[in-house]
Amino acid sequence: MIWVWIALAPILGGLVYGGERVLRARMQRRQGPPILQPFYDMFKLLDKRTLIVHAPHALLAVAHFFVLWFSVAAIFLGWNLLYIIFLHLFAQLLLILAGYSVRSVYSHIGSNRELLMVVAYEPILILVAVGLYLVSGSFEVSQILKSGGYLTQLPLLFAALLMIVPIKVKKSPFDVGEAHQEIVGGVEIEYSGVFYEFLYMSRFLEYIFIYSFIYLFGGESHWLGALLVAGVFLLVNLVDNATARVRPAQMVKIIYTVAMALAVFNLAGVLL
Amino acid sequence: MKFFTPFRKKSPWVLHYNAGSCNGCDIEILASLAPKYDLERFGVINTGNPKQSDIFLVTGPVTYRSRERLVELYSQIPEPKVVVAVGSCTATGGVFRGMYNVEDGIDRYIPVDVYVPGCAASPQLIIDALVKGLEVLEAKSKEIEKPFKLFGAIETIHNKLSRLNMATKVEPHAKD
Ligand code: SF4
Hints:
The complex is a heterodimer of chains A (272) and B (176). Chain A is mainly α and 272 residues long. Chain A contains eleven helices and no strands. The interface between A and B is medium-sized, with 32 and 29 residues. Residues 21-22, 24-25, 59-60, 87-89, 94-95, 119-120 of chain B line the site of iron/sulfur cluster.
């Protein structure tokens, strides 16, 4: 059963992404694309000619997708949280390498920003894992889901996690990594056709990845977890529609001062 | 593949290029992407990246400064692709016709599939043209399409087609 879910993870993420595009359109009083739009896009990309810069560049995107899928699978299987975070970091590094491996300046800028994003959110993710460990006594996702009370003991840590969700799903104010037309997609710029498709699908997996961290805060109660995910989903899109993009350096500064302080403060409170 | 062909018209991604227009038509294009006319309901995304686009929206008569870039961008869009010329000056030169620094219309440089009249073309017309362009897009094959001018060569290197020299530069002192 769990294997079916793992196999379906990109499709699930695609539905979330499609739903999000509709939701954002409705927030702007537009009709918006159909909810299956991401899949139409994927099928169309399969039907286009593919331009390749060089083979390793194209393969790194494929590798990025599969490592990411593996880390999402690890969450579903209830493995060690730290292991999952580092797997995800590895996937991100593959993408950054891909960005640096071509000559396009925009690709390099994209990689730089991707690195800054990793620098910004990675400590918070690890602190979240530590916080969950302190309360539940285990790094295993399956164990974490067996106890509860995270939200009452780790409210500030949850707020810190909330702040890094927009970075991961590339939403304003922290969407510096892709930045719409400002840097033309950053690391994605040199991809086309089938290989762009892998990057497109890994975006779906990012959604699953970061929202499962939100879900973990629900603990044993599945309803609470689902409610949290839905609430955060709405909130992130609301903020996305209402804010402008900050500069990369500002992003790191905001995360390091506000989110980090919240997280450390909360952890100190739990420890003492 | 035949199975995927119907999906072409469901997700047209747009590349918008200003080849020296007065900005009138660009604003109309932005208006048709904005909430009131909402082109996104057809699945349109304004990508800004030629390698991921299907529809090339061009505005403006081609000025001498912009022609190299026009052909370069055109060459970088993978097939199947459709070119939509937005505005009178893009189709014929319009108010700029006969000026010393422009070519009269983009179809001297690249093949155009849909022309949109109007100075400036209204958002309704632009939407109509895009929908028309989708029909053209669905009927197209994946043959490589070449620009009329400034076309370099498509070479075969290690059994792979290379587009690296597909678009060339204007000769430094050519009289045209
Ligand atoms: S058609 Fe008219 S409004 Fe449109 S770009 Fe040309 S001159 Fe401007």
